[in-house]
UniProtKB/TrEMBL annotation:
Pathway: Lipid metabolism; Phospholipid metabolism; phosphatidylethanolamine biosynthesis. Its cofactor is pyruvate. It comes from the Eukaryota. The keyword Lyase applies. It comes from Scleroderma citrinum Foug A. This is phosphatidylserine decarboxylase. One of its GO terms (biological process) is phosphatidylethanolamine biosynthetic process. GO terms for molecular function: phosphatidylserine decarboxylase activity. NCBIfam families: PS_decarb. Keywords: Decarboxylase, Lipid biosynthesis, Lipid metabolism, Lyase, Phospholipid biosynthesis, Phospholipid metabolism, Pyruvate.
């Protein structure tokens, strides 16, 4: 999705609500969502990724607007998406929401049956899972390479920073999606300071010194807790150590480099634990919904590491999302800050790092943006910060 700067915002940002598409029957939304996935196939979308799921909520797709005419009036009335702060500046930009995420959220938040849809209607959950798996198969097919040039152009991918910059050497779209960077492309800030922590992903980031602050400013789902996120009994020793700790939430958009890295120097503890779950969108407007906790409902995988300096456990939770096919771990037993530890196959997705209480003091600018006091936030509006792998995340607090 092309982003537009704040100065171009002349309409209000939409707060997702069922009434904004109330004239369109839910079954029509379902059909449109399936057609968006279908248009991911080059034979259907002619290799133009913006004709399918990569179209923004402001796109004028003739076939889609024939199905859902209300989308045009919605785009005329609102900007659909989220603001993101640019680190090191007082600026922010507006990131348009992918149209598939907008339709997916409508299915979840539909009308007066919202609670029933979230808690008891398996049809919507099955649909999102089915189409997520289908999308992964489409992007694993040999013909999907025809989408790569359009993807590079749409998202302005910097080919010169890739380990393999020749797009014709990738066998599938997914291979390009989880592309590697060349050595040195993401240097670790303050790498010689053993007290430091670094960003784990190219992402949009919020940080909270305590879980309570995270629930106050960002994660509104009433089911969220560290034990539920980790899929552990509250009496588990690691869970007890991490409970009430600090959270760093890295949201990866489709355009982002989708390999993720260790935020700490440490040692891997045991094996990753896969937790089955749903395929809800991880867009901030879904995370901010009080009746839905996407982090503890979605498919995820948990890796525990022992921090080299504090000797405390740190959890890295890779969370799948709508249209995300898989989570793959690639770590070595011993890791240094900035070392690759895994990647996501297609889709926007999220990584959550959980630190024990008192182990990390997040950088002040990240904290201020996350609670709405940074210069790029409007008043008390919590806002994500645009990050790259290796950027400073924080330090061990002074004794």
């Amino acid at each position: 999705m092309a982003s537009i700067s704040e100065v171009d915002i002349t309409k209000p940002v939409e707060e997702i609500h069922p009434r904004n598409l109330q004239e369109t029957h839910k079954d029509v939304i379902v059909h449109a969502f399936k057609q968006l996935v279908d248009h991911s196939r080059p034979s259907k979308g002619n290799g133009d990724i913006t004709q399918g799921i990569h179209g923004s909520a402001h796109s004028r797709l003739p076939w889609l607007h024939e199905l859902v005419p209300q989308l045009e009036s919605l785009a005329d009335k609102y900007h659909v998406g989220n603001f993101v702060a640019i680190r090191g500046t007082t600026q922010r930009f507006f990131e348009s929401m992918p149209i598939y995420a907008r339709l997916g959220m409508h299915l979840l938040f539909h009308g007066h049956e919202q609670a029933k849809l979230l808690e008891g209607n398996r049809h919507v959950e099955d649909l999102l899972k089915e189409q997520s798996i289908r999308e992964g198969k489409i992007f694993d097919s040999p013909e999907s390479v025809k989408n790569i040039p359009s993807f590079v152009k749409t998202y302005n991918i910097q080919l010169d920073e890739l380990h393999e910059p020749d797009i014709h050497k990738y066998n599938t779209f997914n291979e390009f999606f989880y592309r590697r960077l060349k050595h040195g492309a993401r240097p670790v800030e303050n790498g010689d300071d053993s007290r430091g922590f670094c960003s784990a992903a190219d992402s949009r980031l919020v940080v909270y010194q305590t879980v309570d602050l995270g629930e106050k400013f960002w994660i509104k789902g009433d089911e969220f807790s560290v034990p539920s996120l980790l899929g552990l009994d509250p009496t588990d020793p690691h869970c007890q150590t991490l409970n009430g700790g600090s959270l760093a939430i890295f949201r990866l958009a489709p355009a982002d480099y989708h390999r993720f890295h260790s935020p700490i120097d440490g040692t891997v503890i045991g094996e990753p634990r896969d937790i089955p779950g749903q395929y809800y969108t991880v867009n901030p407007q879904a995370v901010n919904q009080p009746n839905l906790d996407v982090f503890t409902r979605n498919k995820r995988s948990v890796l525990l590491l022992e921090h080299e300096v504090s000797k405390q456990p740190v959890a890295v939770v890779a969370i799948g999302a709508l249209l995300v096919g898989s989570i793959v771990w690639t770590y070595d037993k011993q890791v240094k800050r900035g070392d690759e530890i895994g990647y996501f196959a297609y889709g926007g997705s999220t990584l959550v790092a959980v630190f024990p209480p008192g182990v990390i003091k997040f950088d002040d600018d990240l904290v201020k943006n996350s609670i709405g006091e940074g210069p790029a936030a409007a008043g008390k509006e919590a806002i994500e910060t645009l990050m790259k792998v290796g950027y400073s995340l924080g330090k061990i607090p002074d004794a």
